[in-house]
Amino acid sequence: MNKHLSSLIALQNMDAEAGKLKKQKNDLPLRLKQLDEANERYNLEFEENKKRYDDVLAQHKELESRLKKGSDSLSKAKDRLGEVKTNKEYQAILKEIESIETKNSEVETEIICLLEEIDTRKGIFQEKEKAKEQHNRQYEVERQNIAREIDSLDEKILMCSQELKKILESIPKDLTKRYDMIKAVNHGTAVVSVWKGVCGGCFMNIPPQLYNELQKTDDLISCPNCSRIIYWQNKE
User: Fold this and answer.
1) Residue 130 sits in the same domain as residue 227
2) Where are the beta strands (DSSP E) in 109-212?
3) How many helices (H) and strands (E) in the chain?
4) CA–CA gap between residue 37 and residue 44 (Å, rounded)
5) Where in the sequence is the domain holding 194, given as residue range(s)?
6) pLDDT for 150-204, tens place per residue?
7) CB–CB of 67/111 below 8 Å?
């Protein structure tokens, strides 16, 4: 095989590999963004659950405070019974005591109902906390994996770049210029194989005479349909 053709094939293969690696690297920021967005949504949901639990605890605390104040008021009202001097005052304090006891009873009922809700929300929140610990570990692992993948791809891209430079040094400038021009108009592919009379680039049949010539000559031949540099490859 023509040595320049061999170099062009190697150049095309290395170009394709470099392109594939760059595409993989370009996809990683999107993966990282999607990972971060999913983590943010998860944290927001967790905080909403935590707030609901905290709100119930705060409500319970407020009710306990109201009950304590009610109990204090009740004690003071009962103490005042021994100080009254008229029946009218006595009846007024009894009415006050009854009102306080009614309110205290209502608060106690609210507290009992709320305790059930606290138990339910506490169980849910504890499960969420356990899940969050696992989620955080998984999130960090995935982030580190992406970072390692970026480093690995950078290393491979550098190696491809160095190899491309070596290959380019072995090809005449006019030929590399021709290669670049063909690649620019053919979606990054300038050199393709032909098998059974079909161009591997445009997948069109080439003339039988040209196909026969391609199997015998070392000359650089272009596909009459897509202008790519073609070579015969026995795929059997």
Assistant:
1) no
2) 191-195, 198-199
3) 4, 4
4) 11
5) 176-232
6) 999 999 999 999 999 999 999 999 999 999 999 999 999 999 999 999 999 999 9
7) yes
